[in-house]
What we know:
This protein is an alpha/beta fold. The chain has 16 helices and 18 strands. It has helices at 70-73, 78-81, 85-96, 101-117, 133-147, 165-178, 199-212, 224-234, 238-244, 262-270, 279-286, 294-297, 313-329, 336-356, 386-395, 419-436, and strands spanning 5-13, 19-28, 31-37, 48-51, 56-59, 61-66, 120-127, 150-155, 185-187, 189-193, 216-220, 253-256, 274-277, 303-305, 371-374, 398-403, 406-410, 413-414. Strands 1, 2, 3, 4, 5, 15, 16, 17 and 18 form a nine-stranded mixed β-sheet that branches. A five-stranded parallel β-sheet has the order 10-11-12-13-14. A hairpin with a 2-residue loop joins strand 2 and strand 3.
Amino acid sequence: xxxxxxxxxxxxxxxxxxxxxxxxxxxxxxxxxxxxxxxxxxxxxxxxxxxxxxxxxxxxxxxxxxxxxxxxxxxxxxxxxxxxxxxxxxxxxxxxxxxxxxxxxxxxxxxxxxxxxxxxxxxxxxxxxxxxxxxxxxxxxxxxxxxxxxxxxxxxxxxxxxxxxxxxxxxxxxxxxxxxxxxxxxxxxxxxxxxxxxxxxxxxxxxxxxxxxxxxxxxxxxxxxxxxxxxxxxxxxxxxxxxxxxxxxxxxxxxxxxxxxxxxxxxxxxxxxxxxxxxxxxxxxxxxxxxxxxxxxxxxxxxxxxxxxxxxxxxxxxxxxxxxxxxxxxxxxxxxxxxxxxxxxxxxxxxxxxxxxxxxxxxxxxxxxxxxxxxxxxxxxxxxxxxxxxxxxxxxxxxxxxxxxxxxxxxxxxxxxxxxxxxxxxxxxxxxxxxxx
Length: 437
C-alpha cells in the first residue's frame, strides 16, 4: 500500500480495561509510527484515512493453537468425540494422510479468511499432512501471504502415519529454514501428542530446535488418557518427557495442558513455554470443568487462547471467563480480570514478539501494525470494566483488519479474494478427502 494509513477518531483499547477516545493511529510501513489525539494527526494528501467514528481499535487477536486443516476434516459427531483418545487420533490421522497440497491450500485459505474477518491477525498452526509435509507447509505459506495473514506453522509429526516420523520432522525443519526471513510466515517444529511420538522423533525435534533457534509446538497432557498412554509406553509424565528432549522454552507452545500438576506448571512458567488453553474445546471433547487446568492458572504461566480450529476466540474467551469466575468464587483465584487480559494480550503478544522480533500487542509507536477496528463503539464508563468490554469485544465483528501495515479486511469484506469462492473451494477439497476415506 502506498502512502500512510491513518485511523481517525478511534477508541483505543488498553489491557487494563481503560479506553482512550478521540485518538488517531498512524501506520507507516509495517509498524505504528505515531499515536496521538485525533486533532494532532490530520490527514495529508495521499493518506488512506479511515473514519472509525468512535469504534474500538485493538491489537490484532492471536490464535495460539489452531488446526486450520485438521479440524475442518474431523467428523465432529458425538460418536467420534466419545472414542478413546488414541482411537480418535488414529481416525483423524488416517484422513489427514491422504491430503494433497492443493487440498491443504484450499482448506487453509477458507480457514484463514474466516479468522481475518473476525479480527484474528496471527495464527499458530499445527498441521498434520504426513504424506506431503514440504508441499503442504509451502502451500500454507503461499495462502497466508496472499490473504495477508500472519502465520507460525509447524507439522504435528507422529508415528501414526505410514511416513516415518523422523522424515516428517526433517521436512518441517526445511520449512523453518525457508521462512526464516519471511515478513508474515515463520516456522516452528511440531510434534503431535506425547503418546504418539517416539523417542527418535522427540530427540530429532530437540536437536533441530537448538540448531535452528526456534520454538516447538505440541499437544501437551490433553487428557488423563494422554498421561496414561505416555506413562505406559515411556514410564514418565508428559511435561517431563518434552522437557527431557529440550522441547520447552521461549517461542514454544504447549496446547491444552489439561492434566498437569502444579510442579509441571511451574516448570513451564520458568522456561517461558506458552500454554495455549482451549477451554471450550476441552469441554466439548472431555466434559467436566470449562478450564480443568487450575495448576496453570495459579502458576503465572505464559498463557494464551487457542481454538484448535473449532469455533472462535470469542467463544474460547467466554468459556475461560466462566471457568475463571468459578475459581474466583471458590477463593482459588483472586484476579480473574487480569487473567482475561493475559489470555488475549499478554502471552500471545510475547509469543509474537519472540517470533518476529518486533514489539506487538500494544498500540504505540514502534509496535507491529497488526490492528483491528471493531464494529462497535464502547460506552464511556468510570473505573475498570474490563470483563464487560472483553465480552463485547468477543461478540463484535471486525470492520477493518490490518496485518503488518496492510489492510486485509475493509468494512467487513476480505480484500484478497471473495470469501464465498474460498468457501466453495474448501468444501470441494473436504468432500474429496472424505470420499477417499
